[in-house]
């Protein structure tokens, strides 16, 4: 049986006019994680929203490195965080 893969999602909305700053901040914090994830992706969306997804070879309940909360002046609200267990792609088994 292979080790499961867990994805962590971190999403924040920048304060007015601070989208670029939040994107830079998230990129820098992702690079500073104490260990590298299997994969990471940085995304942006309208309304200056930034999403960071990291994939880890770990169980759903395992302790994993997460991005911190940014400075309150950089965002309009608290960060949203989600954790998902990978079930594999539509045509691949989980953990590959």
Please give a structural write-up.
With 96 residues, the protein is α+β, with helices and mostly antiparallel strands. It has a single domain (5-59, 73-85), classed as Alpha-Beta Plaits, CATH 3.30.70. The protein has one helix spanning 19-31; strands at 5-13, 39-45, 49-57, 80-85. A four-stranded antiparallel β-sheet has the order 2-3-1-4, with helices on one face. The longest helix is centred in the first third of the chain and has 13 residues, at 19-31. 17% of the residues are buried.
CATH topology call: Alpha-Beta Plaits
Kindly provide the name of the CATH class: Alpha Beta
Sheet having the most strands = 4 strands, antiparallel
Average pLDDT for all residues: 93
Low-pLDDT stretches: none
- How would you classify the helix and strand content by structural class? alpha+beta
- The CA-CA distance between the termini, in Å, is 11 Å
Shape: elongated
Give me some keywords for this one.
alpha+beta, four-stranded antiparallel beta sheet, 96 residues, Alpha-Beta Plaits, 4 strands, elongated, 1 helix
Write the layout of secondary structure elements.
Elements lengths: L4 E9 L5 H13 L7 E7 L3 E9 L22 E6 L11
Antiparallel strand pairs: 1-3, 1-4, 2-3
Quick overview:
This protein has one helix at about 20-30, and strands spanning about 5-15, 40-45, 50-55, 80-85. The protein is an alpha+beta fold and about 100 residues long. The protein has one domain: 2-Layer Sandwich (Alpha-Beta Plaits), CATH 3.30.70.
């Amino acid at each position: 049986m292979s080790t499961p893969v867990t994805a962590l999602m971190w999403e924040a909305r920048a304060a007015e006019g601070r989208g670029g700053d939040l994107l830079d901040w998230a990129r820098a914090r992702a690079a500073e994680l104490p260990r590298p994830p299997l994969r990471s992706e940085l995304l942006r969306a309208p309304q200056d929203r930034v999403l960071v997804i990291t994939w880890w070879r770990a169980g759903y309940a395992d302790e994993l490195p997460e991005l911190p909360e940014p400075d309150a002046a950089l965002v309009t609200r608290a960060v949203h965080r989600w954790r998902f267990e990978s079930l594999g792609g539509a045509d691949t088994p989980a953990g590959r």
